[in-house]
Each structure stands twice: as C-alpha cells, then as structure tokens.
Amino acid sequence: MDTIFGIRKLGRRLTWPVVTLGMFDGVHLGHQKVIEKIVSLANKTNGESIVLTFDRHPRSFLSKKPQSCITSLEHRLVLFGRLGVDITVVLKFDKKIAETSAEDFIAKIMYNSLGARVVVLGFNCSFGKDRRGNASMVCGFAHKYGFEVISCEPVEFEGEIISSTTIRKNIIQGNLQKAKGMLGRHVSVFGTVIKGSGRGKELGFPTANLNLHHEVRPPSGVYATKVFFDGKEYNTITNIGKRPTFEENTYDDEPVVEAHIIDFNESIYGRDLEVQFLYKLREEVKFENVDELKLQLERDKMRLMNKSFKKVLTE
Asked: Domains plus CATH for the chain?
C-alpha cells in the first residue's frame, strides 16, 4: 500500500479511482465492509482503491487536546494495508480543512485532486465544515462530476449497530470478547517501544514498554498476548498497570503497558509493535518480594505456553 501525506503529493495519474472517506477509528467490521467494497470494485475495474483519512481526529483539533482512539494513524495504516487498499491519502486536519465546506471538499478533493469515479461511504459518514457533507449530498453532485456513489448499510453485532464509540467503551471496561466481535479480530494496541525502568531485564523477564499514542487500552491486569513485529508473531505476556511491587504511584499516574516477548532478545527501542490480546491471565497484584514476583511470572509463562501448545494440537 502507498501512503501519501497531503493531497498535493498524489503526483501520478490514476486509472479508475474508487474512493472512500473517514477516520475509520478501529477499522471495525462496519469500516471493513466499506473498505472491502472499494477494494473489490477497484479490482473489477483495474482501478485504484483509495482511502482518504485524517492525521488526527477532528475533535483533537477542535478541542486542542489529544483524543483517545482505538487505533492511531500508524495502526490504521497497518490495518488498511492488510485489507488490500492500494493508496491511503492522509490529510492534515487543520484550520483550512476544518473550514472547508462539504461542497468544496467534494469538488476540490474528491473530484479535482483524486478524480474519483466511484465514491463509497458508510451509512453515517459526515465531513466538511459543520459536518454538513454526507452520502445524500455526494449523490447530489454525482451527475455533475460523473462519478457513482454507493452507500453501505450499517453492520450489526448481537443486534447492535457497530460503532467506534461502543467498541472504545467495551475495551476500557474490559469486555474484550464483545469488542472482538465488533472489530472482527482480537483487540490490539499499536505502540512505539520506549525505555523503561529496566527492572524486567533484572528479573530475567525483559519487557518492551510501549507508548500507545493515545490508543485506548484494556483495564489493568496481566494478559496472554501475541506481538507482531517485522512480519512475525511471538507469544507474549503483557502487563498493564502500575507495577505495585516496585513503585509508589499516585492515583493520577497512567498505567504502564509492557510486553515480555518470549524467546526474543533483540533491541527494538524506537520500533513499533502490535499487541493482540488473547485472554486475561490474572489481575495485577502487589507481591511481598521480588522472588514471589519472579515465581508468578514463571507460572504465567508456563500457563501461556501450555495453553498455546494445546491449542496448536487441537487446531
């Protein structure tokens, strides 16, 4: 997948652009339906599937505060690529974009810059100043600019329309199975490895400490996880919490996310990892001493490996 930052940097002639637009936070089953549609149509016409998205949530710009999300831009790009998207165009959401009318967005960006031949939108897609743009408005311009418009119906899970808001709530509350059902995949976080305290290495359990770039995380606890890095997957134990055995934390301190990748010894500071949550092993607890903690970590590792091994035998 090609990723292009800024509409003016597209720089090449497109054959038959099939375009969709949105934040796609979570890239859940509803979003996947839209994206799979543009990929399918592009394949049939020998054209290009194009996702038009933004570098940040509009609320982040309007409120002047970073907003929590299910998937950061970097995470979304990985997921778009897995779905077979040809090109993602990332627009910087700034004052100019915020004040662009829906009509100008259609004319100047979708038509003039991208040359859209087909526009596929989700049922609740909105864009442009004051969010006036929607599928109905785009349909009104279809004849003038000569493109086709397709509006996708909502997707439901257990009788409820899938939405990023609902998924975000379920992840935060620890309802990972429901979130998984709406996402169509395991709940995951995508973060950059940063330097930590080094205590994990001293214990014989080195960990990758992650900066999640405002992605939401499951509640505190110890989880069986998979890490995806450089095209490979690894069995991993991930702790989310405040390391109570070692640290005195205030109520306002952010939980730390640290992943122990089993049988992995590379230095990966500054690299990005995706961590998929399989199931919860236990709650995070304070141990009386380091030896008790080390013993529990060994138990966690054995439980993970034994369960993983049994799963392989039964598949």
From this structure: 2-155 (3.40.50.620), 187-314 (2.40.30.30)
